[in-house]
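Hey team,

Filing this mostly as a record. A colleague (T.K.) asked me to run one chain through the structure pipeline before their review meeting, and I want the input and output archived in the tracker in case anyone asks later how it was produced. No errors, nothing strange. Just documentation.

Input sequence:
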Amino acid sequence: MKTEAGKNKSLSIAVVILNWNGRDLLREFLPSVIAHSQTANIYVADNASTDDSVSIIREEFPMVKLIQNKENGGYAKGYNDALKHLKEDVFILLNSDVEVTENWLEPILNIFYTEPDTAVVQPKLLDYKNKNYFEYAGAAGGFIDMLGYPYCRGRIFESLEEDHGQYNDDTYIFWASGACLAIRNLAFYEAGGLDETYFAHQEEIDLCWRLHNLGYKIKYTGGSRVYHLGGATLNAMNPRKTFFNFRNSLYSLLKNTPGTLSFFIIFLRMSLDALAALKFIAAGKFAHFYAIFQAHLSFYRNIRILLEKRNNLPKTKDYFSQKSIVISYFIGGKRKFSDL
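Output structure:
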């Protein structure tokens, strides 16, 4: 595990915004990033947009550095392609639909200065449309249960908590949201970057998991606050999002869980996926049922590649703090992180 010196007060920062046909989002959200990120270099990495995003960046935001990717490879490949051009000590992967606030960078950098073993930091993510509530994508830091279901402080499945300052602390978490993820350059490449087979959704969970397996820590800081619109690329009702979430969760379980236990866990998870598919049929949401079916087929098709990746990584047994968030939520009626 490689780390920078903990007391190095000259860490350089790259705020990198991945864009694909997001001209309106750039105009709405980029001004806050420019206004409140004066100590950072700001980049927009364009994923081969077909709208006029590139010309808007050049004409309306000339202070922003432009990276033009050759294709739309999704979140994972898009960032991998963009970051290989950068030399800053800290990368902040920021969604194009995030509004940042004054002094949002300082609490994040303070952790990197004082904790050399912390590789990733996430700020508090609040809902841009309802600013008193936490946002679905990452809230106050993420965890997973033993079956790979993600949940957050401030958000369990569809239940979002109101922000009363209950998560204004700094604390270690299992995964940080890709909506606003600050990561050390060296740690990003030591872990192998983002896995491009994911394309989109949950690739940040896989990255954080691999960093845990390498001995790094992931941290949340309530001292930094940003507002996330969410659903700007794929909203929750899009079957494509259902496909990625179900498939990529299986990817992460196979790649990162230790020993033969992982195969038993995957069997249980796939059984629960089947129940979810039946629930979609009962609700008349046949496209989502088909998305789960396709997710499992894609998982089977890629097992060989996933096993190769699995064999190349160390494993940690301490990856979950909740045996089953599904049971706690749907049977136990526990809707808040503090209830768990």
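Quick notes for T.K.: DSSP finds eleven helices and 13 strands in the chain. The chain has a mean pLDDT of 92.
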